[in-house]
Specification:
By secondary structure, this protein is α+β, with helices and mostly antiparallel strands. Helices cover 15% and strands 16% of the residues.
């Protein structure tokens, strides 16, 4: 079985005991699901750069420059959820 590798990064942003989550558009795969801000890592981009770029794109603002508390790297295997649009 061919294994597709996709490099992604996300942020868990906490402020005053609250955690930021964003809701996907009804026109996207997995419509209206909640997720942490993030996305696909572009060529020659670090996970940290990806998170800063994605937060700026999604929220029309900058990620506070408080720094990164922890960075976790690893591999996750995902099974395609039922009802996914476009069969991707």
């Amino acid at each position: 079985m061919l294994k597709k590798t996709l490099r992604v990064a996300c942020a868990i942003i906490e402020h005053d005991g609250r955690i930021l989550a964003v809701q996907r558009s009804e026109h996207m795969n997995l419509p209206l699901k909640w997720e942490f801000p993030g996305g696909k890592i572009q060529k020659n981009e670090s996970p940290e750069q990806c998170v800063v770029r994605e937060v700026a794109e999604e929220h029309q603002g900058d990620l506070p420059r408080a720094g990164f508390g922890a960075l976790q790297r690893g591999e996750v295997s995902l099974l395609p959820p039922e009802g996914r649009k476009g069969g991707e």
